[in-house]
Write a structure and sequence with these properties.
This protein has 145 residues and is an alpha/beta fold. The chain has one domain: Glutaredoxin (3-Layer(aba) Sandwich), CATH 3.40.30. It is built from 3 helices and 8 strands. A hairpin with a 5-residue loop joins strand 5 and strand 6. The termini are far apart. 28% of the residues are buried.
Length: 145
């Protein structure tokens, strides 16, 4: 198995992502099987413990993050790319040599994973502007305007 950066290889039970999935997933692991943009954020319990240590509102950050996904979702759906909001900690990228991404221990609790079977997954850690996420997505999936 391959690793990306400091990502740790783990064996976990998985749940599939279906094309066009929109629901918030509470599972700890997601299997990446189709072109996808996974918008990950902390679980509720994780969010509450972080809020106790912080002066900023995770609710407002989460709303902003969700708005970016919602703005991109119609475009992604037209291109056959799933937009998924997830609290999973582990992501298994399908392929001949499965790649397991572990976001536990990450400094940034929000981020985006871009996945295509044709390429290595790309992880955008932290909150980004919608234009930066959109531009990166266009390049990663080789989409022309």
């Amino acid at each position: 198995m391959r690793t990306v950066g400091t990502l740790v290889i783990l064996a976990m039970l998985c749940s599939p992502i279906k094309s066009g999935a929109q629901a918030l997933s509470e599972s700890d692991t997601l299997r990446l099987t189709a072109p996808s943009m996974i918008f990950y954020e902390p679980k509720h319990a994780e969010r509450e413990s972080l809020m106790a240590l912080s002066v900023f509102s995770f609710d407002s950050l989460s709303r902003e993050f969700t708005m970016i996904r919602e703005r991109m979702e119609p475009f992604l759906n037209k291109k056959g790319i799933s937009a998924v909001l997830s609290t999973a900690r582990f992501f298994i990228a399908e392929g001949t040599d499965p790649l397991i991404l572990d976001r536990s221990g990450e400094k940034e609790v929000f981020g985006v994973i871009l996945y295509s079977k044709k390429k290595e997954p790309l992880i955008l850690r932290g909150l980004r502007s919608d234009s930066e996420v959109f531009t990166t997505m266009m390049r990663y999936f080789d989409i022309r305007r």
